[in-house]
């Protein structure tokens, strides 16, 4: 079975991990510090990133850093992995969904603006498939409301919009380093921000909420072992052994990006002329890193195409089931039919295989199977 996504590990990655295993640090140490600097450099922000244990942990940490709490509202897209929404709920927020743009599947700025209330604390856009959100428009909506713009960039580390790297476009940006993502630490994530204040809050939260910073201590006559807990936090610390893998992978990010674009171009060239298919949109000024190849089939036969490809030994996926239709949100009153663009996109979408180690022959095999199904 040809998988729809998988990691790309080489001997340099293995050597980087082995070096840590032979050293004195396994948990947070010098490899994490280096990885945080490396991620910040790619993201185009000055301060080191805040490395965490997963993309979900990164989202939770970002919401906590932005001060989200009970009574606050977080506006986000229903076309995403559900953690974009549920991690805000862990902070006590009410999640408010808004529809997406028909072409990219990203949060629509006009829909987000219509959902703003005096309780809006964060607007969270998602770089669906690797295509950056319309950050300038969403930032204006957020900042006009006194809110924070959070970019869930789980799909798009290494991308940019109008020459600005993903990571420097929003007030807070979160990354995921799951094996199928653009680079991997096995499990892991990171938070970046241009704001020192938001970064400090994120670092405190992921470090269990305690401090040894003498400027913050209420008791100052204890010994060097002394620490204080001023706020709630969680242990989301990434270990050195995983951070070393991440830094090694970052060395190949440009290569990964280029190959993902080549695969996208090959799919597009072979499928764009078929009336019942819709290839991914690519807006001017956006430089995506294609985490997914989200093909849409417009004639209502998505399930049949899914089953046809599986029968041909080709792994595919659906990204995503609209979050507002999940029972946890249906129980809060959200209903199918409220976000027709996101729901239509989801009903049509099928993610074809996309990872850097796909060969041209693999891609052509997928193309041939799709074209056979649609009779092209």
Structural class: alpha/beta
* Distance linking N and C termini: 24 Å
Reading the helices and strands in chain order gives HHEHEHEHEHEEEEEHEEHHEEEHHHEH
How much of the sequence is in beta strands? 5-15%
Helix content: 25-40%
Q: Find the CATH superfamily of the largest domain.
A: Type I PLP-dependent aspartate aminotransferase-like (Major domain)
CATH topology of the largest domain: Aspartate Aminotransferase, domain 2
How many H/I helical runs?
Answer: 13
Average pLDDT over all residues: 97
Main sheet, how many strands, which sense, barrel?
7 strands, mixed
* Spatial shape: globular
GO molecular function: pyridoxal phosphate binding; transaminase activity
Active site: 181
Modified residues (N6-(pyridoxal phosphate)lysine): 181
Pfam family, one: DegT_DnrJ_EryC1
List keywords for this structure.
376 residues, alpha/beta, Aspartate Aminotransferase, domain 2, Aspartate Aminotransferase, domain 1, 2 domains, seven-stranded mixed β-sheet, three-stranded antiparallel β-sheet, 13 helices, 15 strands, 37% helix, dTDP-4-amino-4,6-dideoxygalactose transaminase, pyridoxal phosphate, transaminase activity, PyrdxlP-dep_Trfase_major
């Amino acid at each position: 079975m040809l998988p729809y996504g998988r990691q790309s590990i080489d001997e340099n990655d293995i050597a980087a991990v082995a070096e840590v295993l032979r050293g004195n640090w396994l948990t947070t140490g010098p490899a994490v510090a280096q990885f945080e600097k490396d991620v910040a450099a790619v993201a185009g922000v000055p301060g080191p990133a805040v490395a965490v244990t997963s993309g979900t942990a990164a989202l939770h940490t970002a919401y906590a850093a932005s001060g989200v709490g009970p009574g606050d509202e977080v506006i986000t897209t229903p076309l995403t992995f559900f953690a974009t929404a549920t991690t805000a709920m862990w902070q006590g927020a009410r999640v408010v969904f808004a529809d997406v743009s028909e072409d990219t599947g990203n949060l629509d700025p006009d829909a987000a603006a219509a959902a703003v209330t005096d309780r809006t604390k964060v607007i969270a856009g998602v770089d669906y498939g690797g295509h950056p959100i319309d950050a300038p428009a969403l930032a204006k909506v957020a900042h006009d409301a006194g809110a924070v713009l959070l970019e869930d960039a789980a799909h798009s580390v290494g991308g940019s919009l109008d020459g600005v790297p993903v990571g420097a476009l929003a007030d807070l940006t979160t990354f995921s380093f799951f094996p199928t993502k653009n680079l991997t630490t096995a499990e892991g994530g990171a938070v970046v921000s241009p704001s020192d204040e938001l970064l400090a809050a994120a670092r405190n939260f992921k470090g269990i909420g305690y401090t040894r910073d003498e400027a913050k201590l209420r008791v100052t006559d204890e010994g060097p072992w002394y620490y204080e807990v001023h706020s709630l936090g969680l242990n989301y610390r990434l270990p050195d052994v995983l951070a070393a893998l991440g830094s090694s992978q970052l060395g190949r990010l440009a290569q990964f990006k280029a190959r993902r674009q080549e695969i996208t171009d090959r799919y597009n060239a072979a499928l764009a002329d078929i009336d019942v298919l819709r290839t991914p949109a690519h807006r001017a000024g956006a430089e995506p890193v294609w985490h997914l190849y989200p093909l849409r089939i417009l004639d209502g036969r998505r399930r049949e195409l899914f089953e046809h490809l599986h029968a041909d030994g080709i792994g595919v996926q659906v990204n995503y089931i609209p979050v507002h239709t999940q029972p946890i949100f249906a129980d809060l009153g959200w209903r199918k039919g409220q976000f027709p663009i996101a729901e239509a996109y989801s009903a049509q979408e099928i993610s074809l295989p996309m990872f850097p180690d796909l060969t041209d022959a693999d891609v052509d095999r997928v193309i041939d199977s799709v074209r056979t199904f649609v009779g092209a």
